[in-house]
Queue: 2 jobs
Job 1
Amino acid sequence: MGNAPAEDEVTLFERDMKEFWIQFKFSYGTEQNNQTSALRDLCKETLEALAEKWSKKLKEEDVMIDKIHECNNEILQQSKYIAEKEEQLTEIRTKLNQEQEQQKNLTDSIEEVKQELMKKMEIKSSKNKAAKEKLEQVSKIKTLFKDHLALEMRRIPDEQLQFIFRHIDHKDPDKPYVCTLSINEQGDYEVNSCTPPLDCIAELQLKLRETNNFSAFVANIRKAFTALSYKQSA
């Protein structure tokens, strides 16, 4: 009988301990559940905030990517435009170089023609000077020939000198014997006509060109006409 109260106390203690444990577990579980729920809500809110943040960031990056594409397209267009302009500039430079080369060639050609013309003018001037000197020489002896050889000299068209010899035919002293002379483009004496014709005229012309002795030429022409006159009279 004495043990019964002790057993009741143990049983009561065990029961109290069991109730306490149940209440503790219930209380802890509820708090744990509340904490878990709060943590879940916090995580959800955090994830939603992060999702919104990253979504916004991704949108901003998409906008940035679009802007980069636009910039790249603009750079590409500018590069294409610059390439076209550089090509046009190259063509212009090529044409300019060609025109400069053509101008240089034209200038060189003009200079060559100018030098050639100057040389021709110098030659012509020299020939004209020589011709003038020869004509002056002829003029100086004109009076002498006329007085002593019965020779008359005339200047006729085309810069020709006409020599008229008389007192050759003793039967007809006034009968004219005519020889026409000029200076050609080379500056040489040239017999254009001889009346009556003389077989030796080519030889006399060559000798005149070689010696430039005009007086001797005129004297030889007179001798040839005289010989021809005697021959025809015989």
Note: Residues 102 and 171 are 76 Å apart (CA to CA).
Job 2
Amino acid sequence: MSQGSGDLLLLLAALLWAPGPSPTLSIHVYTQREVYGTVGSHVTLSCSFWSTEWISDDISITWHFQAEGSRDSISIFHYAKGQPYIDDVGTFKERMEWVGNPYRKDGSIVIHNLDYTDNGTFTCDVKNPPDIVGKSSQVTLYVFEKVPTRYGVVLGSIIGGALLLVAVVVAIVYILRSCWLRRQATLQRRLSAMEKGKLQRSAKDASKRSRQAPVLYAMLDHSRSTKAASEKKAKGAPGESRKDKK
């Protein structure tokens, strides 16, 4: 093998084994999916983020707005070098307020005096060098005359009402059963007391009869003896009268 071929192989091996560039770190941005507001009120568009690096002085936060039915997106807010900037483009200049704090990983804004023209999609994008690669997050704003009741709230109310009704029915059944058991126990005690009273009266009557029987027998014997004596005396009376005549 020639010297040139050997050098080429060494060069290819060095390229294959050489370490590649370090991967770029990623930043994660989070917002709500939907926000509801009413005409004339205000709404907070929350934006939080997570970064593997300490918050640097070069951190930047940008908000974009795409109106409902439009294909164009405009920048409405920018934070950089520690200062918030509200863009002159659009109708949010006099109605927007910065309430975030990058050092708390918060990039939220507030929009005041809502109008129907504010319906659309808002995008929050955060860069924290060297964390510069990441996907932005979007939140859709719906402005109504009155905030509609969401389906989940209605369903939750129905389920809550059904559970409350079941709990009331169970409580009523429990109370009725307790009352019935107490009534049965009271009746049982009354019946037991009545039976006990009858037994006591029966015992007293039997005792009275047992005490009265000897007296009756004595009275009968006495009456019989008196009757026999009177009969005997009556039979002996004529003989005595004849003796007297003689």
Note: Confidence is low (pLDDT under 50) at residues 10-24.
